[in-house]
Amino acid sequence: MSFRNPLYIRLASFALACILLAACAKQPTTEYTPVSESKADAIARQIDISKQGLTSWNDLAPALESSLAYVNRKPADGVALKRDILTITWGELRAGLLLMRNLLPQLDQDPSLLGKHFRFVQISKDPKFTSYYEPAIEANLTPSSVYAYPIYSVPGDLQSVDLTPFHPRFKGERLYYRLENGKVVPYFHRADIDSDKKLSNKGLEIAWAKDPVDIFFLQVQGSGRLILPDGHEMHVLYAGKNGHQYVSLGRVMKEAGLLGPDNISMQSIREYLDRNPQKMQELLNTNPSYVFFRLSDKGPFGAMNQPLTARVSLATDPLLLPLGSLMTFTIPLPDKGPAGEFRQGTPFTGIGLAQDTGGAIKGHRLDFFSGYGEEATWVAGHMNTPGSVWIMLPRIP
User: Fold this and answer.
1) What is the CATH number of the domain that holds 274?
2) Is the backbone of residue 26 left (phi > 0), alpha (psi -120 to 50) or beta?
3) Of 27, 40, 125, 144, whose CB count within 10 A is highest?
4) What is the C-alpha separation between 135 and 373, in angstroms, rounded?
């Protein structure tokens, strides 16, 4: 592309402005602390895969194969993560996944093998765990007075550019935009799309839902299932986004005094919106981020374009845990009391794989994929807790 191209000049000017702003911001720091072999052994013995819906360690094999399919495409000597005392190559991640795959047949009898064969490196700064799930929403492939709210595919005028060449600080970042009278402008935000109907009647609708709140939470989760009138199910998968920053609706409602600080969950947000339909769209519009979808017979898939595994797959910030990373984590699972009230469950230690990313998953936050169904919905709606996480790397002989 020629440097005299007006579009290139405008994008370069925008990127320069971003660099100047970023230079003023303090970059987050993360400490990676290797643990002793005895501590690694203790962590390994605490792992309870039954809490993850696994009856045997061998059940982990498909999820490992998904991560290997992604990591195998990376250069073995390429750097997957570089932070202070810790540098991890894609080759090391691959070696760890292969080692775990080879150990699976023995782990039902002797899980302590993990402590003997792996280094456990703890991520400090008290990482926070949230959860996401695969929602089910009532929808139809044709519109009607009942199914009136569109789910959109990626618009043809949505453009993006990789900002990595402009500055190392923007590695992996993209700018999303559209052209208006030859000028680069931000793409339409939620209010433009849902309230002002900027995308209506452009042939972008792939389905129509009964409830706009269902679509909002579908976008937050990134994928889901459509339940059609005849009972048939279709997967609806992430296809793109408008590039606007994600804003937490729960945080907006808490700051506005609409929800108490101890009563913020997906369920409480939905209950408030159901009781106050006149405020619904205004509140939804406070999150300018918008997600576009595609239909599929299979799913859900993560950022590696590989299937996700319930209670094993996690969405992470690649600057904290690169995609393909093998990890151990300790978190409490949300529990439901006899009256249906939320109770913090007993912490458990599980095995995890970094297989997804998310617009809101930045820094020391990990998003636990809880799966599909009523229990998965409950866990995803209520998990917001500190936890512990260790990257697992093969021991150096």
Assistant:
1) 2.40.240.50
2) beta
3) 40
4) 8
CB 387 within 8 A of CB 368: no
**Percentages (nearest 5) of helix, strand, coil residues in the chain:** 30, 30, 35
> How far is 116 from 99, CA to CA, in rounded Å?
12
pTM (2 d.p.): 0.83
DSSP β-ladder status, 291-296 and 342-356: unpaired
Residue 24 domain-assigned? no
> Do 105 and 138 fall into the same domain?
no
The single-letter code of the amino acid at 17 is A
Rounded average pLDDT per 10-residue block, the chain, 397 residues: 47 50 46 90 95 96 98 97 89 98 97 95 87 96 98 98 86 90 96 98 97 97 96 96 95 95 88 97 98 95 94 95 97 83 86 93 93 92 93 90
Decide the pairing of beta strands 233-241 and 224-227.
Answer: antiparallel
Asked whether residue 144 falls in the same domain as residue 289, the answer is: yes
CA 346/CA 358 separation, integer angstroms: 27
Answer with the one of 243, 272, 296 that is the final residue of a domain: 296
CB within 8 A of 200, min separation 6: which ones? Answer: 150
Phi, psi (degrees; rounded to nearest 5) at 187: -70, 165
CA distances for 189 relative to 94, 152, 194, 197, 242, angstroms: 39, 13, 9, 11, 7
Task: Provide the domain count of the chain.
Answer: 2
* Closest by Cα among 364, 380, 358 to 222: 358
User: What is the pLDDT at residue 359?
Assistant: 79
- Check residue 7 and give its pLDDT: 52
Computed on alpha carbons and rounded to an integer, the radius of gyration of the chain in Å comes to 22
Residue 220 and residue 127 in one domain: no
Structural domain harbouring 357: 32-132+303-394
Are 325 and 343 in a shared domain? yes
Element holding 351 (H helix, E strand): strand 342-356
> Per the domain annotation, does 53 fall within a domain?
yes
CA–CA gap between residue 179 and residue 278 (Å, rounded): 34
Q: Do 73 and 80 form a contact (C-beta atoms < 8 A)?
A: no
Q: What pLDDT score was predicted for residue 170? A: 82
236, 293 Cβ separation under 8 angstroms: yes
- Name the amino acid, one letter, at 211: D
Q: How far apart are CA 341 and CA 334, in angstroms?
A: 10
Report the alpha-carbon distance of residue 338 to residue 243 in Å, rounded.
42
How do strand 224-227 and strand 136-140 relate by DSSP bridges? parallel
